Structure formats: structure tokens, C-alpha cells
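Re: weekly structure request thread

Next one in the queue (249 aa):
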Amino acid sequence: MKQNTFSIVARDPKSGKIAVGGSSNWFAYSRLVPWIEAGLGAVATQAETSLSYPKVIFESLKSGKDIKSSLIAATLSDENKNIRQVIVIDNNGNTSVFTGEKCVKFASDYSELNFAVAGNMLANDKVIPSIIESFKTADEELPLAERMIQALKAGQDAGGDFRGKRSAGLLVSESEKIGTHMDYISTNIRIDDHVDPILEMERIYNISKAYKFMEAGDNFAYELNDKENALKSYQEAFKLQPENDEVLF
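Done, posted below.
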């Protein structure tokens, strides 16, 4: 399956959260490219996507192998690895990358502790450096999801996928798989078809952030009888969604 695109995997060393996200001119980026397992790691498989990669990598990590060995194991079993591009991160922030020699240019990758990025079929050789600069210079106090979105916007502003833009997606998980899926996957945004998918992803993220403030406000108000903190939470929600009737309600 073709998924010529650019993606990021990252970890917030303070919270332990991990994330994977990206964008493409191909329909439904999130259907095939980003994969995440709380407490384990994240994978982006792109160019000519192979769903064997997340399966092999996650199973390898579960068996105790390191991230580089896990990615190597996936490529060794793939006769078509020359058309694959894969980036991976484990729960400790260790990363590994692979770009097959037949990936459509501009194709490149970069990795360091807590961060890796790769792209193929890019408009120019400035896309990946722009993503790197944005992520590495971002305010570390910002939530990981927001730093991811800003870095993807920088990549798009630098040219992005040379065919255009259509879809985007973002997954963020907690450091441990505790509770239900809704508890440990803190962000799950999927934009399958939009004229400006990364901006739309940012819009949806801000809506979800507002609703989390509203939920916190309800908890303070009705469960803890803490009117002061309830009001603060509702005010934060209003800042993000001033025209939302439910916020006003």
C-alpha cells in the first residue's frame, strides 16, 4: 500500500508519553502508517507500507530485544525492504530508522534519543530539517501532542509531500497500559480527507483539549465541591472554544 508521507515518533521524558503522527497526500494516513502500544513503543511504516513491521517490532520488543535489533529483524524478513521507510521508538525513548534505497526522493530520516523523523516523496530537502528544528526548539513545557502538531506544520510549510496534502493523524499514549484503552491512549486524531489536514488536526486537538478542561471542571464542581478550581477549568475551556455552546452551558 502506498503511503508516501512524512512522520514523527517522539517521547516526552518528563511525562513518559510517546507519540506517532504525520501527514500525506494519500487518503487516510492513519489507516496504515501510525501504530502505538502503551508501555512498549510506536512505529510509523510508510513509503510502500507493510503491516508486518509493527507486528514484528512490537513482538520483538515484548521478547526483550532492543529497538535497533527489533527493526533489523523486521527488515531481514522483508524481500521488499528497499521500498520501505520505517521509524520506531521504544518506551525509554530509544529510536531507530530505516529508509530503503528505492524510496522516492526526496527521502531521508533522522533519529536521536526521544525523537525520530522520516519522509519520502517530499517536495524538497528542507522538509525534514524544518521538522527537526521545530521540534527541538519547541517549549518543552508544552504537551507532546502540541509539539508534534507544530513540527508537522513546519514540515508542511517547508513543502511537505510534493503531491499536496490530504490526510493526517496523531496518536499519543501514556507510559503504561493502565485501565481501559480510553485511559492510556490520551490522543487519537484521524483526518482522512481534508484540504488542510494538519490545521484540521490542530483544530480537533484544541476541541478535545477544551472538553478535557470541561470534564475536569465537572469533577471539581460535582465530585470534589471545589468551585474555585472548577471555575478555572471552565475558563480554560472557554479560551479554547469561546463559541462552543456546550462550554457556555
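Residues 209-244 form one domain. The radius of gyration is 19 Å.
Next request, please.
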